[in-house]
């Protein structure tokens, strides 16, 4: 089921007939169709990834994947982890991008919860998206509590519960 969806959107890197080095997978094309030089994907362990990114929509997944400086080879799925992942590097940081399968109805919180069970060294979690779930009714008494397009919403965990605050870009 997932493989059909992944093949349709070219989620898995394509293979070439030449032999890659041990522990690497060959890739010749990004999901977006941009041609790249043939390179080899590094394989890192679960512990190497410190930033988790959730992508609920296909557009968010494509954008996040294109922002990677380097993609890494996929790891076997974790026990009881229904997430799908793209692994890679941005600058000096190893990133895990989690996304639901084609028929999954997972929330960002569920994706992150599963990710944290599989990738135990995640220190920062990102949900970068179009803000489809953000409140849309304006707060006329206090405009600082109104979320608008272009705003950045930051979660500051407090014990067992997350706390969000809005920071408008200037």
TrEMBL record:
**Listed GO MF terms:** catalytic activity
One Gene Ontology biological process: nucleoside metabolic process
Q: Which domain of life is it from?
A: Eukaryota
State the InterPro entries in the record. NLR-like, Nucleoside_phosphorylase_sf
Q: What PANTHER family does the entry give?
A: AAA+ ATPASE DOMAIN-CONTAINING PROTEIN-RELATED, ATP/GTP-BINDING PROTEIN-RELATED
Instruction: Kindly provide the name given to this protein in its UniProt entry.
Output: Nucleoside phosphorylase domain-containing protein
Natural source organism: Orbilia oligospora (Nematode-trapping fungus)
């Amino acid at each position: 089921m997932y493989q059909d969806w992944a093949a349709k959107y070219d989620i898995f890197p394509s293979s070439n007939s030449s032999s890659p080095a041990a522990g690497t997978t060959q890739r010749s094309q990004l999901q977006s169709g941009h041609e790249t030089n043939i390179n080899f994907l590094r394989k890192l362990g679960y512990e190497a990834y410190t930033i988790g990114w959730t992508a609920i929509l296909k557009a968010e997944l494509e954008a996040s994947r294109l922002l990677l400086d380097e993609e890494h080879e996929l790891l076997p799925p974790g026990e009881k982890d229904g997430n799908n992942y793209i692994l890679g590097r941005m600058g000096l940081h190893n990133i895990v991008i989690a996304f639901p399968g084609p028929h999954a109805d997972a929330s960002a919180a569920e994706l992150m919860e599963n990710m944290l069970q599989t990738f135990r060294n995640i220190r920062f979690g990102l949900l970068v998206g179009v803000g489809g779930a953000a409140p849309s009714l304006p707060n006329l008494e206090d405009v600082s509590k109104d979320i608008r397009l272009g705003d950045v919403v930051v979660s500051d965990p407090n014990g067992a519960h997350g706390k969000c605050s809005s920071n408008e870009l200037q």
